Predict the structure.
Amino acid sequence: MPRIPDERPLNPQPDIIAALSAVLPAGTVLSSAAELAPYECDGLTAFRQRPMVVALPECIEQVQQVLRLCHDARVPVVVRGAGTGLSGGALPLADGVLVSLAKFNRILAVDPDSLSARVQPGVRNLAISEAAAPYGLYYAPDPSSQIACTIGGNVAENSGGVHCLKYGLTVHNILKLKLLTIEGELFEVGREALDAPGLDLLALLTGSEGMLAVIVEITVKLLPKPERAQVLLAAFADVETAGAAVAGIIAAGITPAGLEMMDNPAIRAAEDFVQAGYPVEAEAVLICELDGFNAEVSFEVMRVRELLLSAGATEVRTAADEAERLLFWKGRKAAFPAVGRLSPDYYCMDGTIPRRELPRVLRRIAELAADYSLRVANVFHAGDGNLHPLILYDANHPGELERAEELGGAILELCVAVGGTVTGEHGVGVEKLNQMCVQFNTTELEQMHRVKAAFDPHGLLNPGKAVPTLHRCAEFGAMHVHHGELKFPELPRF
Amino acid sequence: MSTPKLPERLVRALADIVGAEALLTDPADNWAYGYDNSRRQELPGAVAFVRTAEQVCQLVRRCGPAGVPVTARGLGTGTTGATVPEPGGLVIAFERMNRLLDIDAANRLAHVEPGLTNQQLQQALAPQGFFWPPDPTSAAVCTIGGNLAYNSAGPRAVKYGTPRENTLGLTAVTGNGELIRTGVETTKGVVGYDLTRLLIGSEGTLALIVGATLKLSPKPEAKRTLAATYRDIHAAATAVAAIMAQPVTPCALEFMDAAAIEMVREFSDLGLAPETGALLMIEVDGPEACIDLSAADVSAAARVPGLLTCRTAADPADIAALWKTRKALSPALRHVAPKKINEDVVVPVSRMASFIEGLEQLSRRTGIRIVNFGHAGNGNIHVNLLVNPDDRDEMRRAQECLNAVFDLVVNLGGTLSGEHGVGLEKRDFVERELDPAALRLMHAIKGQFDPHGILNPGKGLPAP
């Protein structure tokens, strides 16, 4: 896998640095090597690239000026929030301007009557819920990085989180966006009211990874806090039974607020790390959170308990109090750093599969891991089939990183083969460009490039991300998929 | 009026694609496929009944280079003219492409063809304990393809969302005659641009939907119905805000204003107190074991100052009695003003009372009687201007009034179309709501999906 996926010939135009300095306040244009270093990657640290220059605008007018300069000089632009993205969506370009929206960090209004809040893109996800808390409200999507990640980044990547099974992704929880075109023109999409006329640009822009327009303001939907949340922890003697139990809960018509699964390596790592009281002998645990009003939760806890036991759980515990509920979650939320202690490096995947395929895919991942002589720990959002296999490797052992990447690619292709998708919530960025060639055919990818051209005809906004060029797909060798010879023709391939 | 005729060669080519028995070319036959529920009508040059996606691709590939406009049609129940064809154009009728391909309970999804009716789908899902939430009033006769093209919702949208929230993926044919798949089979997925939502609600202007993967919801075990009456619209609007701010989201929250109640009262004695100024109909659903508690929570939230009565019903007869007023409304309206202007607009829930007040002022100023009802939970209001189209002076005042209604909506941060779409009816008002850059981008996107400009031209967006 090439380190830098952007296929354009480099066209450095250092004059832009002086031009930016002329329009932005002192100290907000960074160009020395030391100043650029912190911006060279986002949460996908395997890819690194220093930008030519970093701009830190403070207001919409300044962003407009930056964009106009870049547009006129044909300099590419990458926008960055907190840099917590896991797919390299904010990876800079060597000849590009990196625009950090870190200074756009104000909550402009919380409106408890219309259950909404208007915020700048650099506001942290959790800060919105904190500001809404006095009104008994909160912002539902909760990516694991919510203490640090920004709402602008959430919109750009259409981030999910533990609770999106019940409450949806970012796209389901925003009402309105204020954006700038690459020419610097300000426009608004969406309404505070249900459904605006014309095309649904709000949805199109959400998850577009900064490739269509630059977000400068967001109106999010707030929800009333549930009266009560209760958690069950179920242990299983094998992973496949746990997978089947997930399908059973969903098919029974229950929509938990969260339904998470951890396999034995992840359980042991988490238990060693935070002592959450997990059953370390279990091959898998399910953590099921139910929320809502009191009576509803009591009833659903009983139903889910019965379902888990009849699906073959060896043990089902219900958190006795809020402290125990938080403890059950603590193990899950600490799982990633805990797994990090098992191995010097790990590679986090993000494929999503239809729920019924869980048992089969988990078994196949274990087989693949054995083939590649690597360990894999599984911690994931089971309720919506969103897998996060963590591939453990040691970059200091020659060849391990490459093997890990190959195994990762094989896992994602497996996800597509069973009717799933290569990313559930982390986005494509630079990481999954090859797998996009597997998931979509030439016509479909071309249509996406055409949509980009409608917004950004010169290809200046975050070029090289999210949608692979056809040339790249040809090189990746996936083109044969596109002539009606699908690898798995019997599978529905949405 | 002369309608452009399709060239003989093209007609033969179209017949080769779908079969001669599936192509109408006689104007007498074609007329029946030239209108929808907007009372507009145009004569298409041909009507093709398709059964496969491949046929749609081939038809569009034929029409593109010839510059023949193509309009998709389900069963023509739309109210804004989006399925009214261009004169002399091709109507692609999906009524025979109506199979339910499969229902997958463990993954809560179903694959359907576009011509399946909403009701056929619901009937097939019910025995498995599921439903598809969008429930337009015309569910018995409207197609899924049409629901997706318009993003048609219904009362349940307040809890379950519109078709955009209930569709996982689509297959569609672009203006180049190319088949594309959008979206995923999973509830999550962030691969590439969200073309699924872009196509939903695009009124057949970007691509023709030939298949859909629908997200299913578990059918609730039980339901309770509440009817609450209020002294005035302010009290009712306060109650709506209070209901929406507590954790039990109702699955329907409908309202009628004083003018609507007055209208019904002229026709039947409903036993409503004379001082009744607004009515809310509220439904909650959920597990049997806790439905009464949910209903109690909602009922508590509905009890705001200005409440006159609040009743909860559980058994079907009681429920029917509560719905009597609301159900009497449509027949009453048809009787008083069969050719009324019915506009479907949305305002933020917190501004509903201001909106109704504004409408009352407008009614006084223009002398046009305005009756309002709709889905209060998401601020979706059906504004009915009771007019007689034969009275030219009244129609002039109605146009003026309508104009002011749309301004009022936009000024309150609302939107011009809640669930009926834009079509031809509202096309020229869209500019008031959308930024010029947004409108320009929409046209640019249209150009990228439909380079020949043949897909339902002139619908949905004002001319660039």
